[in-house]
């Protein structure tokens, strides 16, 4: 065994992408197995590897971890990206969960029917600009520090930069009214591990395309 974490998911972003981001941010290399057929998925279930018959699956430190949130917390804790005490950790959890709610809309977008796309895109824009981004704009402005929590790079920063870039892909001008977030984006993009992840050839996955959507539906026989 190589000792590297092994990620089992589709060859696309979905629920695994924040795990890829966080491992990359921690400077940890990983291996990936991409699900392409329903037989592969059913074999994992038959072998008893998937606790709730769901992916993401991350094999790490002798564990077969499922549940995205548990996987991310473990990685954040292990690599010192989870605050210096329980209160910082609570704040990171609140920020991360908020951003996850926004990301949930983006995750579901490729699976929405064509006639609902325009409405869903408008909803993403509305929620990003009136609910989620203002929170982080205000936090950064008030404490004047480089990172969201404890003046130190954390899981919350990783989750936010991923979300900013994902929303910008859909709505390029979305940061216009958010000068703090514009500066944050540049700053965090220059953290060496993040800079590396943003370069071509990294394990970062491209925006979802039709092939990805069809593969997910095929694997789950939907
Ligand atoms: N709470 C779990 C987690 O956070 O890990 C949910 C995991 C989950 O929903 N996994 C899906 C699955 O395995 C794949 S991601 N489903 C099979 C089943 O029978 O439940 C599905 C997904 C995509 C994109 I792809 C957006 C949202 C969900």
Condensed summary:
Helix content is 56%, strand content 7%. It is an alpha+beta fold and 222 residues long.
Notes on the protein architecture:
The chain is α+β, with helices and mostly antiparallel strands and 222 residues long. It has 2 domains: 6-79 and 198-211, Glutaredoxin; 86-191, Glutathione S-transferase Yfyf (Class Pi), Chain A, domain 2. The chain is 56% helix and 7% strand. It has helices at residues 17-25, 38-46, 68-78, 86-108, 114-143, 155-170, 179-189, 192-197, 210-219, and strands at residues 6-9, 31-34, 57-60, 63-66. Strands 2-1-3-4 form a 4-stranded mixed sheet, covered by helices on one side. Strand 1 (6-9), helix 1 (17-25) and strand 2 form a beta-alpha-beta unit. Helix 1 packs parallel to helix 3 (68-78), helix 5 (114-143) crosses helix 7 and helix 6 (155-170) crosses helix 7 (179-189). The longest helix is centred in the middle third of the chain and has 30 residues, at 114-143. The protein is globular, with a radius of gyration of 18 Å. It starts with 5 loop residues before the first strand and ends with a helix. The mean pLDDT is 97. The structure holds gamma-glutamyl[S-(2-iodobenzyl)cysteinyl]glycine. Gamma-glutamyl[S-(2-iodobenzyl)cysteinyl]glycine (IBG) is lined by residues 14-15, 53-56, 67-69, 107-108, 216, 220. Keywords: Transferase.
